[in-house]
Amino acid sequence: MTDDETDERFRARLRAFLTEQHPGRRPKDPVERVAWQKKWLAALYDAGYAGPSWPRAYGGMELSFARQVVYQEEYARARVPGPLGTGLGIAAPTIVKYGTPEQKERYLRPMLRGDTVWAQGYSEPEAGSDLPALRTTARRDGAVYVVNGQKVWNSSADIADIFFTLVRTGPPDSRQDGISYLLIDAHAPGVTVRPLRDLTGD
User: Fold this and answer.
1) DSSP H/E element including 158
2) CA angle, corner 89, sides to 84 and 93, nearest 5?
3) Which domains can be identified in the chain, with CATH numbers?
4) What is the pLDDT of residue 127?
């Protein structure tokens, strides 16, 4: 993108890319669908069309608000796959604003490119909207935390690589003052992911 490019030229360039590189119909098989989506997100990133609002330093486009509107209009018009997981909209802005340089380098680009999938771990069987009542605990053990508890309604947990999770590091009655935000390797020993079936069988 050049500094003197007009919004309409940007729109035309983006539309041409989305049309020419369209990944085709969504596969029915769930495993194939994830691979198809990851391939698209990588192509988007590698061509410089990922993260319209993200800083360029982390692989984004750093577009003005007006250009972000154009981007979203064209993206919706093209009917191409969106992001995998919930990390891009929730965890990524937190890392961009508050993360250390090492955390930004380690996590942001792989998340934006679709190389790693993030899922949130907030709600619990007895603490849904009342998050200060959560019971999952995390105890410091040297350089790591030992986490014990259960989370539910974790969209994309079945394909996640990382859970961004709220845990209790304070005493049981500390409510919101005793909650910490941890990143948990979804493939770590002791992590078990089980499906919840809804009324339609999904």
Assistant:
1) none
2) 130
3) 7-84 (no CATH), 118-185 (2.40.110.10)
4) 85
Contact 52, 61 (CB under 8 A): yes
DSSP state of 127: B
Residue with tokens 């309409």: 8
Instruction: Output the pLDDT for position 198.
Output: 83
Interhelix angle 101-113/30-46, rounded to 10 degrees, is 120
CB 133 within 8 A of CB 127: yes
Alpha-carbon distance of 52 to 157, in angstroms, equals 25
Residue appearing with tokens 């495993």:
31
Give the sign of the dihedral formed by CA 87, CA 90, CA 93, CA 99.
negative
CA distances from 150 to 147, 154, 179, 180 (A): 10, 11, 15, 15
What is the mean pLDDT of the segment spanning 27-54? Answer: 96
pTM of the model: 0.90
The count of residues in the chain is: 202
What amino acid occupies position 100?
Answer: T
How distant, in Å, are the alpha carbons of 43, 49, 81 from that of 1? 17, 10, 23
Orientation angle between helical segments 65-78 and 7-20, nearest 10 degrees = 30
